[in-house]
Amino acid sequence: MINFPVEIFYDGSCVVCSAEMQAYRKRNPQDRLRFIDISAADFSADAYGKTQDEFMAQMHVRDASGDFTTGIDAFSVIWQAYPSGSIYRLFSALIGFPGINLFSRFGYAVFARYRHLLPKKYSNCDSDHCNLNHPR
User: What is the per-residue DSSP string for 18-48?
Assistant: First the structure.
């Protein structure tokens, strides 16, 4: 059981990530989702007991109980915020199937690892928070 609201920690300098968060914002059911841009100059990973590199390495969500979920599982948490019967709930169910789950995990891992090669949303960053060249 997920305790809402859920905080979504996303990379706002990533055009794909930002576009996806914008889609979620437009359909935010009962304000169950909160959005935190980890590339913002005022974001402090330390406040959440994590490093900037940890947040940049993969998607993080945190539920109202303070529990973090990462990677493809984070998307499942986000999608469960939507009403049953919605396309997002269908996505959440689909990634539970073994073959689809494995493919989803692999696909997300590749995207997360190489998204720094995509065009950036912000071309002029004033801090090192926009640096996506994090070590693995």
Answer: HHHHHHHHHT-GGG-EEEEETTSTT--GGGG
Residues 6+ apart with CB under 8 A from 35: 7, 8, 10, 21, 24, 25
Task: Look up the pTM and report it.
Answer: 0.85
Angle between helices 98-114 and 71-79 (to 10 degrees): 110
Domains in the chain, number: 1
Region of residue 66 (phi > 0: left; psi between -120 and 50: alpha; otherwise: beta): left
Q: Scanning the structure block, which residue is given the tokens 């789950």?
A: 101
Residue 136 lies in a domain: no
Does residue 135 lie in a domain region?
Answer: no
Dump strand ranges (E) for the chain. Answer: 6-10, 33-37, 60-62, 68-70
pLDDT digits (tens, 9 = 90+) for 20-73: 999 999 999 899 999 999 999 999 999 999 999 999 999 999 999 999 999 999
